[in-house]
Write a structure and sequence with these properties.
By secondary structure, this protein is of the alpha+beta class. It contains seven helices and eight strands; from the N terminus they run H-H-H-E-H-E-E-H-H-E-H-E-E-E-E. Strands 1, 2, 3, 4, 5, 6, 7 and 8 form an eight-stranded antiparallel β-sheet that branches. A hairpin with a 7-residue loop joins strand 7 and strand 8. It is globular.
Amino acid sequence: MFPWSAADLPYFSALSEGQRRLVRNDLASYVAICQEALDAGISLKNTGELTKMALNSMGLTPTKEVLSLISDQDVVDVYNCEHQQIFRSFQFFSFCRYSIEELYCRPWPDLIQRKDLDAEKLIFEAITSVLEGSQSLVCHPCRPHWVYQTEYPGEGDIHAEVRFITGLTSEGQNKPQAYAGIWRKLN
């Protein structure tokens, strides 16, 4: 994992000042969550505890059973309602080829693609379902499939199993304010 793709920070530099401020805040929040975990004696590889700390920090609550279903082999990605990733468990970095700059500054669809359009459609339907509140938790919304890191063809391919998609609510809100995908690398 590298902090940037090039010394001149091309992706960060291309953002507006407001977007750069959001990136700095998001990255600072992530670092603070990781530091809080370390200070509490929690390994950054403890996906369940790190996720719990992140959700608490963001004021988000998952369905009760979700946290007990997360294992250290899982990757947890949290997205806001605009589908912008706002948290990823540390396990993600063990096979991600992108720099921190790219992850925080580039649109997610530019970085990751699925060739299995049926899987992509089923995942989108599950996300829609949890964001609309018609389901709080969707288990195994699609079959295992290949996910490609677009900038690294053949190098960053991940055979993934999406285990759960769940809505995340804020205090006093009935509808989810965000959602999480819990998935596992199979290869």
